[in-house]
Sequence to fold (128 residues):
Amino acid sequence: MNGRLWLKDVPWELVVWQNEQLCLAKSAHHGPTSDGFEDCRSMWENERTSPMAFIEVVELCRRCHQMAPFTNYNGNTFAAIARGLIGAFDTSPQNLALARSLAGHIVAGVAGNEETEAFRQLCHTLGV
Fold:
């Protein structure tokens, strides 16, 4: 399967905006962290213009979540980005819901091996 430029239209500024919106909705502080923000920004910008299989996009989002670039809602930010991209999949509503759920669990770091393998198989079946 060939990689796609899934994140070409998702510059770091959009990631920051996504986090800001999530924080505003919950009246939480929005801001960068001193430890993770710059390293995460650099990694995101370097990798987002590379062709990737969708599982690689989800893995990038998981790694970014772990780097904690923001003071709040890191997992929600990167899970929202991954789940938003799943809307481009050409599949049934049931598969879309399954893909969104599994991707969110992977990004959050709570997916077990079985869930991760199920997501890999679904991505392979869909050719993404």
User: Anything to note?
Assistant: The chain is about 65% helix and 0% strand.
